[in-house]
Amino acid sequence: MLSDQMTPPRLILILGGARSGKSTFAERLATRSGKTVAFIATATDGDDEMHERIIQHRASRPREWLTIEEPLDLVGAVQQAFHVADVAILDCVTLWLGNMLLQEQSELQSDDQDQVELHFTSDQFHERTLQHIEELLAVIQRPVVGKTLIIVSNEVGLGIVPAYQLGRIYRDTLGYVNQRLAQIAERVYLMVAGMVVDIKSLHQEASL
Question: Would you say residue 178 lies in a domain?
Fold first, then answer.
């Protein structure tokens, strides 16, 4: 059993739909901790609307928080955050996965959309994504004193099945990523209309 001085960093996962209050709740948890905070932003400035969102989010965060803007390298970003702060917010896995998907497409170097989708019929994207998550979890589970990682992710499996192949691959992969994070997380919160439910504490193993 690990001593108090060798306790692994805590992992908190916050799930929910769009505009359910996930980010606000994550920031509230970090603020209430009274500890130093680093904010890992995975959003990219791809259009005017997203540009305005990024500006608004930057302005809304406390000035003393360190912001790390990293669209792909979650492991490096978390290591940097833990070096300078006791609490790190990763917001969010949903956008990170979209960035991963775009990178995969660009690496195919094909102008043929049908050919691009054909390549994504394999399990390679799914496997590579989960490998990144395992590397992230390895960082979190190292014996570092007093560190907490708060991860924000969307629950996208409750809506209609996407009509296009890449959308289905994205949805399915995010579902598996959320499952893996939830397995390791100490707390898993579900946000609905700004209200929070601690679903990890409600979880029970099923039996007949």
Answer: yes
Answer yes or no: is pLDDT of 69 > 80.
yes
| Lowest model confidence (mean pLDDT) among 24-33, 59-68, 101-110, 166-175 | 101-110
Asked if residue 207 is part of any domain, the answer here is: no
Reported as a pLDDT band with limits 50, 70 and 90, residue 2 is very low
Burial (0-12, 13-18, 19+ Cβ within 10 Å), 26: buried
Active centre residues (catalytic): 57
CATH number of the domain to which 67 belongs: 3.40.50.300
Q: Quick check: is 184 in a domain?
A: yes
CB contact burial 109-122 (16+ within 10 A = b; e otherwise): eeeeeeebeeebee
Q: Residue 70 has what DSSP assignment?
A: -
pLDDT above 70 covers a percentage of the chain that reads 83
Alpha-carbon distances, residue 1 vs 7, 8, 10 (angstroms)? 9, 11, 16
If one counts the domains in the chain, the total is 1
How many CB atoms are located within 10 Å of the residue 167 CB?
13
**Does residue 65 have a pLDDT over 50?**
yes
* Residue 208, amino acid: L
Residues 6+ apart with CB under 8 A from 184: 11, 137, 140, 141
Residues near 189 by beta carbon (within 8 Å), at least 6 away in sequence = 12, 13, 14, 15, 25, 196, 197, 198, 199, 200
Position 95 pLDDT exceeds 80? yes
Helix (H, G, I), strand (E, B) or coil at 141: coil
